[in-house]
Amino acid sequence: MIRSTVVLAFLSAVMAMPTGLARASDAGAPAPKRFTFGAEVVASVATDDPGYFNDTSYGQSAMRLARVRVDAALRLGGRAALLAEGRADNGEGLTVAALYLRLRPLPDRPLDIQVGRIPPVFGASGRRGYGADNPLIGSPLAYQYLTSLRADSLPASADDLLAMRGRGWRTRYSIGSSVWDRGLPVIAGDRWDTGVEVRIGREPVSLAAAVSQGTLSDPRVRDDNAGKQVSGRLEVRPSLGLIVGASASRGEYLSRDAGRSLPADRHRDSYRQQGFGVDMEYSRGYWVLRSETVLSRWAIPQVQHPLLTDSLAAWGTFVEARYKIRPGLFTALRVDHLDFSRISGTLFEGRPTSWDAPVSRVEAGAGYSVRRNLLVKLAVQRNWRTGVTIGARESVAGAQALLWF
Amino acid sequence: MVRFRGALLFILVVVAATSRLRLPDAPVARAAVAGTLRGRVEILREKVTERRPSIGDLGMPGRRDLPDQRVAVVYLETAPRGAFEDRPGPTVVLDQKNENFVPHILAITVGTSVEFLNSDRTYHNVFSLSKANSFDLGRYPPGRAKAVRFDHPGIVRVFCEIHSHMNAFILVFAHRHFAVTNAQGEYRIDGVPPGTYTVSVWHPSFTVKSETVKIPEQGGEVDVSFVLS
Q1: Considering the domain B30-52+63-83+177-229, what is its CATH architecture?
Q2: Where are the domains of chain A?
Q3: CB neighbours (10 Å) of residue A316?
Q4: Contact A199 B58 (CB under 8 A)
Q5: Chain A contacts of B158, Cβ < 8 Å?
Q6: Is the CB of B88 inside 8 Å of chain A's CB atoms?
Q7: Disruptive mutation site among A35, A69, A99, A102 for chain B (greatest number of B CBs within 10 Å)
């Protein structure tokens, strides 16, 4: 109660501060609007994806998505703003993808605080929300591909886990929820977490840190395990056009219900997901190059033999390039790989085997701006899943139209 | 016979050249004193082009200037003969300062080159998808300028690919009888030969308004003012 009173008092004080940002260079020029909004309509079609390579944690395919998205910002004086994003995907109801208060408590100081359902501090791709920021149709594997691991259902042994290799789109285990459901991505790129974040600095160096409810894989509005995630990011812009970032995170990922289902002698308080990432963007002339590498580790309980003796790791790397051929026309390529640490069970003749099937993807495409705010993209994807017999490889072709205001 | 053919060819060439120069409904410039069109454009409602909400940012977006929305362009719809003959082809500068194109509206004649100077501390990527004058200058650093020559008349909408809120208008005229209003909304078009003209005002937020005016034989100043609301 005292804590909430202090927070309220702090927010009230910030709101009462005089405006510092409302400014225009010329006297008499119009002042910034108090309320601004933007909208984006995305329609994607694609050939069949029987191997579920493009399924997301929202249960949709990144290549077959019809999305209406509305962003709004309400300026509350010069040092605060309320921001929100509503989405309706594939004709389903409206969801609030973002809703947070942005504060700049000290005038003209690069210190920002955001509270609510906030953009992720970790990595770079998760904050590129607008469709035009993605030169292709698909998403990077680390931000989209569903692994066979879940937060609410746990494998009792190494064999349990190995039996689900390459089946992240529909998986279940013997501990916790027995319902078939989707696995976790390394990072849920399409969902944002709820909490508080602080950014200090802007250019050339900035540091951001956040405390939030969920984890990289499973951002949450409501907490489901009484554990918090701490994440941070250091971003450096050593020269024009070059952005280099390093991120880290640590948070409890196992749901309370799954934890309760563990045998009492195997129950531990803390099953964490830890993440490390480096990212880079370089742009010049008609080129934009991006690359990101993410490493994630999930602590896993040891319940039955053959035991899962170590934490489970996954690492994803992609390199992406976009080149503008002529006004309005560009081409793009992304080379992407997601790999997993080895475990040993009785399956696969007892050989050390990756706990999920490694995946590779090459996506090539082109985009043409019919108008400045109407973009049409075409893309072709080739996907490989190693060490599985079903859904080992497939090609997906897609088209996307994107209109924004 | 050869001489006759040569004479006929000469006549045809002269006729063709003369007819090409003649403009429909263009008032004929006589040996008279050129006049001046002057007046004021009053803009009662200003529309601010704001950036889209920066939902994915980790803090307040950087400060930027807002485009001056009080500027309009006044021009003759039908230009007098001779107006098309002098194409100066100079170079003018369209600056990029505080994530804003300065000026927001530029009026030039066909053949003019525009230098897009980057006076910010970040990259800019100026482009236009306007059919007659499309271009993309790519990303270039502060202190540098890249030039584009505009060879076709029309309205060219200019944007920055990196900063989606940045926009400007370049009005490319086939003649020289136009003026951009100043900070007080005033304009002045000199050297208009006597005749009857349609004078129009253009502003990005309003439909074009037109008036018919007559420049008398003895020249002088004719006042035409507009109110945009």
Answers
A1: Sandwich (2.60)
A2: 101-404
A3: 25
A4: yes
A5: none
A6: no
A7: A102
Does B70 reach chain A within 8 Å, measured CB to CB? yes
CATH homologous superfamily of B85-174: Cupredoxins -  blue copper proteins (2.60.40.420)
Q: Which tokens go with A104?
A: 């700049």
| Tens place of pLDDT per residue across chain A (405 aa) | 444 444 444 444 434 433 333 333 444 455 667 899 999 999 999 999 999 999 998 888 999 999 999 999 999 988 999 999 999 999 888 999 999 999 999 987 899 999 999 999 999 999 987 788 999 999 999 999 999 999 999 999 999 999 999 999 999 999 999 999 999 999 999 899 999 999 999 889 999 999 999 999 999 999 888 889 999 999 999 999 999 999 999 999 999 889 888 887 766 668 999 999 999 999 999 999 999 999 999 999 989 999 998 999 999 999 999 999 999 999 999 999 999 999 999 999 999 999 999 999 999 999 999 999 999 999 999 999 998 877 789 999 999 999 998
**Chain B residue with the nearest C-alpha to that of A21:** B63
Is B53 at the interface with chain A, CB within 8 A? yes
Give ipTM to 2 decimals: 0.83
> Chain A residue closest to B71 (CA)?
A29
Q: What is the token pair recorded at B42? A: 């009053």
CATH number of A101-404: 2.40.160.10
One fold for B30-52+63-83+177-229 and B85-174: yes
What residue type is A155 in one-letter code? Answer: P
Q: Are A398 and A378 in contact (CB under 8 A)?
A: yes
Residue A217 vs residues A62, A173, A364, B112, B174: alpha-carbon distances, Å: 17, 18, 26, 55, 60
The whole-angstrom distance between B148's CA and the closest CA on chain A is 13
